[in-house]
Design brief:
A 15-stranded mixed beta sheet has the order 8-7-6-5-4-3-2-1-15-14-13-12-11-10-9, covered by helices on one side. A hairpin with a 2-residue loop joins β2 and β3. Helices cover 4% and strands 58% of the residues. The protein contains 1 helix and 15 strands, in the order βββββββββαββββββ. It has one domain. By secondary structure, the protein is mostly beta strands.
Length: 185
């Protein structure tokens, strides 16, 4: 791992905050993060994310605490396109390369870095293993990322569209309607 970052976002969509401690280099990334939110209900979340070469998700481990209960998710990608959640197969997301943790701007980084979409023209469609917060349900999500200019990428999923701003390293700076970065280093 070559680059280490600590990034904090004001997550307007959850009326909360997230901080991620990230290391990446040579096409792989490791991160651990914490977030607190009040929408749709007050929650505290901790996660660890690991990718394989090409920024392909290997594992996302998440713990959520709410007033009602605590939840844990161990989401794993086998490197061949198969996924499991807590050891159980997830056939609906077969073929996905990435996880997408709801309300978490960090998980937009992997597909953008893999294809350099924050720096070079292109458009890519993805199937994601999307994890909703705070219930940790995993669902398939079709998403499209389109390069708009240096550091600018349009994210689209269903009827939702947002033009994201990324820094040179591929981390979200501004995600309108979701989050804004508070720290640079």
């Amino acid at each position: 791992m070559s680059a280490s970052r600590v990034i904090t976002w004001d997550v307007s969509a959850s009326r909360g905050f997230e901080t991620a401690w990230v290391e990446h280099g040579d096409g792989v990334m490791r991160a651990r993060g914490r977030a607190v939110g009040t929408v749709p209900e007050p929650y505290w979340i901790s996660y660890e994310l690991e990718t394989a070469e090409g920024f392909v998700t290997r594992r996302l481990s998440v713990t959520v605490e709410t007033g009602a209960q605590d939840r844990v998710l161990d989401l794993r990608h086998d490197g061949q396109g198969g996924w499991t959640a807590d050891g159980e197969p997830l056939p609906g997301v077969d073929g996905a390369l990435d996880c997408d943790l709801g309300l978490c701007p960090l998980t937009n980084t992997m597909p953008v870095l893999r294809y350099g979409l924050h720096q070079a023209p292109g458009e890519r469609e993805f199937l994601m293993a999307w994890v909703s917060v705070p219930d940790l349900a995993v669902r398939p999500s079709r998403q499209t990322y389109t390069h708009l200019g240096p550091g600018r990428v349009r994210f689209a999923s269903g009827d939702f569209r947002s033009d994201l701003e990324f820094d040179e390293e591929g981390y979200v700076v501004e995600y309108p309607s979701l989050a804004s970065r508070l720290t640079a280093r």
